[in-house]
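Attaching the record inline, Q. Sequence:
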Amino acid sequence: MAKYLIRARIVVDGVVEKHDIIGALFGQTEGLLGSEFDLRNLQDKGRVGRIIVNTKTQGNKTIGEILIPSNLDRIETALLAAMVETVDRVGPYDAEVKIQDIQDLRLEKIKKIIERTVEILRLWGKEKTPDIKEVIRSIQEYLKAPEPVSYGPEGLPAGPDVDKSDTIIVVEGRADVINLLRYGYTNVIALGGARRVPDTIKNLASQKKIILLVDGDHGGDLIIKEVLRTIRVDYISRAPPNREVEDLTGKEIEEALKNAKSTLEYLEEQVKSGVKEAEELLQTQRKLHKIPEVAREAETITIPESVINTAKSLQGTLESIIYAQDWSEIKRIPVRDLVNELSNIEPGKAYAVLMDGIATQRLVDTAASKNVKLIIAARLGKIQYKPPETTVLTYNELNL
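Structure, as predicted:
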């Protein structure tokens, strides 16, 4: 369902068809406000619905009504309406387009619901019917948007439980906060429209887990980049493509938060996809999360978050995993069989070893002989010599 409906009147100094008017709308607005705001592009993305034109002929003139459904926000919808008014010709004839009305379809739908509620209550019979005015007042109170509190020196829009919660949902603006409050999410705070992350949110990020929830459009991409440059973020959640957080239903918000990805996993996927700046942001977040990078001569070994998580789950199992250079698992075996397995492996095939056990001199020597670059062990045994080409770390050094 569209959020708004633009109604415009058009007068053409000649007899034309509906498709002539639609062609003029597309043709004369193309590129006017950039390619992203072209009518055809907006329709392809579902931001503008099917344009309807109704016409009639009066003498040598064509009089018509143009209906444009819009899923844009209020400002963008007004901008679209103003852009449509610039159309001044249809075919060889002069034309004039004038906006008559912009209708909020959501309010109209709510009005119909209230009216239908009254009808249903009257059908129950006079004895069973409560006071209609009270019912309408209750519905209106329910629909009334909750009011955010003002949080921190910057007066950021927020829910009442930001201080109480261990996890904070960070959104873009006041409307996003209001929508989350409507569905019971009281641990939410907005960036407040600032170009930089406010100090208040920086302070919260140093104390609490942070979920960043953004719109599913290019603007959401820009917010993610700006926030990840500045503060530690634990999870990233997004509205569905081309949807805004302020318009999501309770179920859609729940789904978005349930599908949130850990920040490091999100950025690792972005790096693999070749997204610009993803590698830089990944390194920044690794530092903020205090995940070490292993420096070895001129080379740096970056340990993926998935491997860090696997190391945590491996504790107490007495198992080991051999990894290839792309961090795919080659084999998972008991620690007692690790030396024999490495002895039989082709040199250069194994890149790293993760083990819930003690790294011995025999193990280190065997791994080095097979060109293994990294060993992560629960503890170190008596190791008198560490080959320079193999790095050995313990769980403690990785803060596990």
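Residues 294-398 form a domain with the Cytidine Deaminase; domain 2 fold (CATH 3.40.140.20). The radius of gyration is 30 Å.

More tomorrow.
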